[in-house]
Write a structure and sequence with these properties.
Gram_neg_porin_domain; porin activity; Porin; 19 strands; ion transport; transport; porin; mainly beta
Length: about 375
Amino acid sequence: MKHAFCRVALACCVGPPLAAFAADDDGLGVQLYGVVDAGVAVTHVSGQGSHSGLLNGGLTDSLWGLQGAEDLGGGWRSRFQLESGFDPSSGKLEEDGKLFNYAAWVGLGHEEYGELRLGRQHTIGQQFGNALEIASWKEMGMGATFKASDNFQFSNMVNVMSPSWDGFQAGVGYAFDADDQGQFRTNQNNRALSMGVKYEGGPLLAVATFDQLRLANAPEGIGGRPQAIQLGASYDFEVLKLSLAWSRQKNGYAGLDGGDPDDLGLGLGPAAFVRGGTVDAWLVGASAPVGPGTVMLQWSLARPDWRWDNGMTARNAQLVTLGYTYALSPRTTLYGFAGYASNYTLDNQFDPANSHTTRVGAGISHHF
């Protein structure tokens, strides 16, 4: 739902930070960076009523982080990243019990051989897939229907990324204990596999990813290992940027980020989905410069193939958003958006009650 790639770009390319540690002569540098994003929104869910109030991270997550690198010579480098999400409306950590919930990893890389990262981080599928997102509005972005591209992280993860070969790059990752179960035997913990390949050349981006979750204690009747395939491409015509994507998700959400409406205790999504269900999802997004800012339009559809316990067929979930961003400066952006979702609530991607959700919001996003 949130645009995690914004954070990666911010950490690497945001320009001179307001607060940073200067690089030493030996090539060691540490940078402080972050985003504070807050707005006001009105959300209405049919059958439940309306809510108005402050919205944390309407455009991108509020966070702060530290990143650093050291040149080891011969093309080798070491790097690290520590990143923490917070709620500016209350000052609280976004996730209790985790100071660095977004990232906590250390890595070693070479310009010709790629990079190895160890620690809490995004999956390869999430990193590559999320780059196709056009509009990252709070809880109404690409990750609402493409859960393998949502803003989630796994602990105890090893990611290996290749260098770029004429625009092509590949990656593979494995989490030994994705959600911190902490059991001694490896097979008593939930493990995750993620891999992908992408091509970036000029205005073209093409992505293919695969994710699979290996559960230690699978729910009764599970149809198989939760998995997700994602395919997509985007092209920047300068006057218009267009993005298209497709995903197939089976046996529950591979990112453990789908909620728990039937109390399965794992974030896999509805029980009917976990017990052999499949979700096919499509996304179309477009952005274009209009006046001093940018207009963003995004539509996605998720089609389930199961029936609920009452015998009713699960209906398609659709989500459409329209928004506008206006940069006051390289660091400060004003934004406004409206979104509508059918057969969908912010808690349930597929709502048996067939509720509809509407949200209108506006806010300020400041990078430092």
